[in-house]
Structure formats: structure tokens, C-alpha cells
Amino acid sequence: MAVAYEEVYIRDLYQRVKLEIQEPILWGSWCGRLQFLSGQDIIIAYKDRQKVPSKNYGGHVDLIEPSNPTLDSNIHMSGWAADLENMVPAESVVLVSNGKRLPVSPLMKLHREDVAQAYSRPILTLTGWEVTFNASILGKGRHRLEFYAKLKKNQLKRLLYKTKKYFEIEIID
After folding, report:
1. 57-171 maps to which CATH number?
2. What separation, in Å, do the N-terminal and C-terminal C-alpha atoms of the chain show?
3. CA within 20 to 30 Å of 124's CA: 92, 112, 139, 144, which one?
4. What is the pLDDT of residues 47-94, one digit of tens each?
5. Where in the chain are all domains bearing CATH 2.60.40?
6. Residues in CB range of 63: below 8 A, 6 or more apart
């Protein structure tokens, strides 16, 4: 047996029990969507408003492949980046490895209908980004990767990978 509820009902229910939804809602494939994260819809919510990073971050890293790259591998990353205070797409994305900016330039303005729908702002459709680079740019060893949305006036907002502020990767021979 499957059960489905209207989004308005769920949002009202969360509000009544003082749970704050961390946007965007991650939609599932259960109803035939072509873009989805898993089979079910996923809502991340917090009881204490102080813990909600809603406008303290600038988007998400959705994909990092491969998970165990070698020096000659190409690494592909993608996600979305926005100025969530002004509800506009980020100007660019900055990648940092072990505290140093990487010399890569992600392709910006890719379509992300899911982000636009989650924030009810059509302009946020253009928040997608992706980049592919050779692992040799990082070099052999362990790397702590951080991602930032570059906003107007050179302001940076962190991108989250899942719920983390960074991603660790090891480049092997």
C-alpha cells in the first residue's frame, strides 16, 4: 500500500510541530519524476532554528565521481549554487583543496528545475554547475575538498556535500 500527501499539508504539519524544513525538498521517483534522488521524497528538518543553515550556505554538491580516483582519472562534480538571501544564481563556484583554490572553472547556469521549484523562484532554474578535471591537478594523497558559491561583491557562501561542509578524497596511483 502506498500513501501520498499534498506538499502543502506536509509543510503545514511540519510548521505546527515547529520543525523547519531545510530546502530544497529532495524529490523521489515514486510518482514518475525523471529527476530524483531516491525512490522516496526526502525532507530534512530541524527542531531548533539555530541549527538550520538555510541562508548560511549557497547550495549543494550533488555528485562527485569516481569515489576512488587514480592520478590519471577524470573527476566529475556537479551541483547547484545560489545567493539564497537575494534569490539569484551564484556568479561562479570556487573549489578548494587543502586550503588552496583549484585552477578549475565550473560550467555555470545549467538548468535545475528542482531548485527553482523548491524555492518557488523561476530564476533559480539557472543555478546548476558542473566541472570535470584530471585528478593530477590535486596530486597523490588525501585531499579535503571545499566548495563555495561566489556571489556579488566577491562574497563566498559554502556549498554542502550531503550535510557536510567538505568532502575527503584520496588520489591513488
Report:
1. 2.60.40
2. 49
3. 144
4. 754 443 456 789 999 999 998 899 999 999 999 999 998 999 999 999
5. 57-171
6. 76, 77, 78, 79
